[in-house]
Specification:
Layout: E1 10-13, E2 18-21, H1 24-34, E3 41-45, E4 52-56, H2 59-63
Antiparallel strand pairs: 1-2, 3-4
Amino acid sequence: MSQTSPGPRWVFCEPCGKRRYHDRKDARRKRRVAHAGDGHMSVYPCPVAAGWHIGHTHPDLVAGRWVYPKRSA
């Protein structure tokens, strides 16, 4: 009998209106599967709750004019 690994775990993030993944690993796994070959999607920390989102990479981040703020643990 084989066991399959469950897919990425997420909840709906009301303040952001997006899926919020429980950990970075889940978000990265989903990005790799759902957005394969799309180099413009990134995983980033939710600004209002513990968790991670997937979204388009902001041009300022790519250009080095902005960095993600440090989150407290």
